[in-house]
Amino acid sequence: MVANPTELITSDKNTTVKLVKSLLTQARQRKKHGLTVIEGVHLIDAALRSDYPFDQILVSESTHKNPEVQQILTRLPTYTPILTLADALYESIRSLGTGIDIMAMIKVPAPSLSMINEDCLILNDVQDSGNVGTLLRTAAAVGIKNILCTSATAQAWSPKTLRAGMGAQFALNIYEGLSVQEVLDHVETPLFATSSHTDTVIYQHDLKSPIAWIMGHEGQGVCDELMQCATPIALPQPNGQESLNVAIAGSLCLYETLRQRNYASNLV
User: Fold this and answer.
1) CB of 154 closer than 8 Å to CB of 132
2) Which CATH class is domain 8-107?
3) CB contact set of 40 (below 8 Å; sequence gap of 6+)
4) What is residue 2's predicted lDDT score, i.e. its pLDDT?
5) pLDDT digits 0-9 by tens, 125-159
6) Count of helices and strands (H, E) across the chain
C-alpha cells in the first residue's frame, strides 16, 4: 500500500523545502543539522535495501505516479512523511538534472570510533567529493567496512559524494572529522601508503594480512605524521607520469589486496 501524500506544496517558504535546499547546497548546514539529502531512485533504493531510515521523502507532483516512484513508496515504512512539491518548486531546489524527481532527507550517522584491528581505509584530507565517493564505492566492493576520514576530507555524506559513491555509504562504517592522532591511537592494523619516494612496488609486498590503506590529499599526498608510521609502496608507472589520481591509486591498491587474498585462489 502506498502511503498517502501530504497536501501539495507550492511555496519556497515552506520550512522543509528551505531546509532541504540548504542541505543540498551548504556543507555548514549539513554539519549543523546532522542531516543530508539523497536524490534519485537508485540512492533511495540503496538506502531501503540497507534498512536506512528516512526523515522525509519529497516527490514532485507529476512524478508521484511514476511506476518506479510508486514502487519505492510501497516499500517505505508507513510512518515515513511524504511531501509532494509542485513541479516548478521541485525543479528549483534539486541538484540533479532531468530525471525521476524524488529525494529523501536522512540523518548523517556519527558512529563512535573504537579500536580497529582489521582492514580499513584512511582518507587523509582527500578533498574532492568525486574521489571520496569513488574510494568509498571501491572499498565497499572489495569488502572493507571501516573508513576513517581526517578533518579536511570532503564530507562522505554530501549529496555529491553520495552520488559518486552510488550508495556505498549505506554499507560502510564511516568515521569523519578525525585528527591524525585519533587515527594513530585507534588503528592497530599496519599502515600502508602510496609514495613517490620508494622503489618498492606494490607487487613486491605481501598484502594477505589486514591492512590500513592510507590515501592522501590530491596535491600534497599523505601527511608526514602518517607517512612516518606507514610502509611506503609505489605503483609502477613505466611511462613516467608524475602521479595517479588518488581514487585510481586507491582502487588499484584495494584490488591488488583482493587479488592476493582471494581472486587467485578462486581460479584454482
Assistant:
1) yes
2) alpha beta
3) 96, 99, 100, 102, 103, 163
4) 47
5) 999 999 999 999 999 999 999 999 999 999 999 99
6) 11, 11
Task: Give the three cell numbers for residue 10.
Answer: 507550492
What is the number of other CB atoms lying within 10 angstroms of the CB of residue 124? 26
CB-based contacts of 25: which residues, under 8 Å, 6+ apart? 95
Contact 148, 122 (CB under 8 A): yes
Report helix, strand or coil for 43. helix
User: Which grid cell is 9?
Assistant: 506544496
Q: Write the burial class of residue 67 (CB in 10 Å: 0-12 exposed, 13-18 middle, 19+ buried).
A: exposed
Helix or strand run (H / E) with residue 59: strand 56-60
Grouping H, G, I as helix, E, B as strand and the rest as coil, residue 108 is: coil
Per residue in 67-121, pLDDT (tens digit) is 999 999 999 988 889 999 999 999 999 987 777 899 999 999 999 999 999 999 9
CA angle (64 as vertex; 92, 74 as ends), nearest 5: 130
> Are 133 and 215 spatial neighbours (Cβ–Cβ below 8 Å)?
no
Show me where the domains of the chain are located.
8-107, 120-266
Place of cell 515515513: 80
**pLDDT class of 1 with cuts at 50, 70, 90:** very low
Distance from C-alpha of 104 to C-alpha of 83, rounded to nearest angstrom: 10
Q: What is the model's pTM? A: 0.90
Write down the residue that cell numbers 511506476 correspond to.
67
Class of domain 120-266: alpha beta
d(CA 224, CA 226): 5
Provide the residue type at 140 as one letter.
Answer: A
